[in-house]
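User: Look at the shape:
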Amino acid sequence: MKLIYRLNTFRKILKHFGFVRITGKDHVRGLINFKHEAKNWYAEIIDHGTFKICWVIGKGLPNSNNYPGGHVYSEKELLSELTKATK
């Protein structure tokens, strides 16, 4: 239960599950990119103040049939899905 309280932001959740932040010159305001090399997963945190979501795509994760695929999560949903995907 303590883990849930510590993993209360998208960044903390992604880093806990092995994601690394991608940095570069092409930075879009409000968009933070992460990747997980070993599992070939990619995540984007979309942060516009009070509106925050995380879009994640990769093998073994839920995938939309629409382009570009992937799935959008809240913090609690992301924690739950990554926990399931890494078991």
Summary: The chain has a mean pLDDT of 85.
